[in-house]
Specification:
Elements lengths: L3 H10 L26 E3 L3 E11 L2 E8 L12 E8 L4 H15 L9 E5 L4 E6 L7 H8 L4 H20 L12 E3 L5 E3 L27 H4 L8 H17 L6 H8 L20 H10 L11 H12 L10 E2 L2 H9 L4 H6 L7 E4 L4 E3 L7 E14 L2 E6 L4 E3 L1 H6 L6 E14 H10 L1 H18 L1
Antiparallel strand pairs: 1-2, 2-3, 3-4, 4-6, 5-6, 7-8, 9-10, 10-15, 11-15, 12-13, 12-14, 12-15
Helix pairs in contact: 1-2, 4-6, 4-9, 6-8, 13-14
């Protein structure tokens, strides 16, 4: 029997979900009665609703017992959370939810609840997912008060881990807040509610009708600047959530409006934590404020990049992420003017940021580094070194280097070293994604470059 994830993905891609065999006896359309404790609902497996955990505009969440659990990975565990969805019957809403589910099924992360089953057959669909009995971060904060620094670091790393895995599957959350964070039994955290009731959140694709939750949402959400929505939008939500837990300021309260209003003309969307907690480490404050920059272009480019920054804080021997020195606009001017490739020359006419100079022998990155940047070679040559041997020298203008590690967060598989003076355009993961999306011709070149590299290595 195929695995649960494989079966569900196959069904979603086929547009399944409307045939009789998949309908629940308690989910039969307009006249269906609301589910209640003791009811049995059916998808691929059968579930008995045990008790109600919460409710909202989307419907309700129940703790449920899987009647078909047998302890194997092919079936749900004995207990799951069942999210009952209020469906309008609108075809667009169903398609949006189907896209969202397909994205979530592509994510396997210890920091995101696993989806086991679902039904969209009637006005009240459901999703069966992992159950976390520790409750929400919102409720936990109401009981314990402000988090310690140690707790804040743990929360920060777990939420970034969730985003790293979600963004790798091109899924944006867009509504990160304490009520969407659940506590694990081991003291860790998971990020839940990826907008299933609002629509798919895919980077560069369909945007949700929802705009997040004041004042956990990013400034671009507050201002309705949809063209700026990307991975960095979620990073702001993580920063705001951890900031709230550490300062014990509920950003959903009336008090939050006056706090945020004071920062409208500032660099950051929220005050520094030291405003509320005097003895806050510089390291924690700097990381949080880096996420809370109002201009999304000045935030880190990915969750993996921030995790690398945190790793360097706790282990100073970890290599710095960005090589070389940044060129001033005056220094960049003649380099852009002398580009031979007309495509790159056109693209850089109005974009001079991110150009960096490396000296002979300077490293772009070393093998096994966690470096979250990709490089476009504009001048000079770069040696590709594997096992202390130069296996290739790249000197073609406009060649991408290190893009796989930048997008996946995986360790570098080769050392890249400047041979003579080198000029590069350096991009983080968000910048690369946006750059390729806006310039399809560059995307084709990127694919060809990767194919050529695979051919050489083979």
């Amino acid at each position: 029997m195929p695995g649960v994830d494989h079966w569900l993905l196959k069904r979603l891609r086929a547009g399944g979900g409307d045939d009789e065999e998949f309908k629940s006896p308690h989910n039969q359309g307009e006249g269906a009665e609301p589910e209640s404790v003791g009811d049995t609902i059916t998808g691929r497996f059968r579930y008995e609703l045990v008790d109600k955990l919460g409710a909202g505009a989307f419907g309700a969440v129940y703790r449920a017992r899987c009647l078909d659990a047998d302890g194997s990975d092919e079936r749900p565990p004995p207990e799951v959370a069942i999210k009952i969805l209020k469906l309008s019957g609108d075809r667009g809403q169903i398609q949006s939810i189907r896209q969202e589910l397909a994205s979530l099924l592509a994510i396997r992360s210890p920091h995101i609840p696993r989806v086991y089953d679902w039904s969209l057959d009637a006005r009240r669909g459901f999703v069966a997912m992992g159950l976390y009995k520790g409750g929400t971060l919102r409720d936990h904060l109401a009981q314990v008060g402000a988090y310690t620094e140690e707790q804040a670091w743990r929360l920060l790393k777990d939420l970034l881990g969730a985003l790293r895995d979600a963004h790798s599957a091109s899924v944006l959350h867009m509504d990160i807040k304490p009520s969407n964070v659940l506590l694990k039994a081991n003291g860790g955290y998971v990020l839940t509610d990826f907008g299933i009731s609002q629509g798919a959140q895919t980077s560069g694709g369909l945007q949700s009708v929802g705009m997040g939750t004041p004042y956990y949402y990013a400034p671009e959400q507050r201002w309705g600047r949809r063209h700026q929505f990307d991975m960095r939008t979620d990073l702001y939500g993580v920063g705001a959530t951890v900031w709230s837990a550490y300062t014990c300021v509920n950003l959903a309260s009336r008090r939050a409006k006056s706090i945020v209003a004071k920062t409208e003309d500032e660099t950051w969307g929220l005050p520094r934590p030291t405003t509320f907690r005097t003895f806050t480490s510089t390291q924690l404050e700097n990381v949080l404020m880096g996420l809370l920059v109002q201009d999304p272009h000045r935030r880190p480019g990915s969750a993996a990049e921030v995790l690398s920054q945190i790793e360097r804080i706790h282990d100073p021997t970890v290599a710095a992420a960005i090589p070389g020195r940044e060129l001033s606009p005056q220094e960049a001017e003649p380099i852009v003017a002398n580009l031979i490739d007309p495509l790159w020359s056109h693209l850089f006419q109005n974009e001079r940021r991110g150009l960096r100079m490396l000296d002979d022998g300077e490293y772009l990155c070393r093998v096994n580094d966690r470096s979250y940047y990709t490089y476009v070679l504009l001048r000079g040559a770069v040696e590709v070194v594997i096992n202390d041997k130069v296996v290739f020298v790249e000197d073609r203008e406009g060649t991408f280097l290190g893009e796989v590690s930048a997008l996946t967060g995986k360790r570098r598989t080769a050392t890249l070293r400047a041979r003579g003076p080198v000029v590069l355009r350096v991009m983080n993961a968000s910048q690369l994604e946006r750059f390729v999306t806006r310039n399809p011709a560059i995307g084709v070149r990127l694919i060809r470059s990767m194919a050529e590299r695979l051919d050489r290595s083979g």
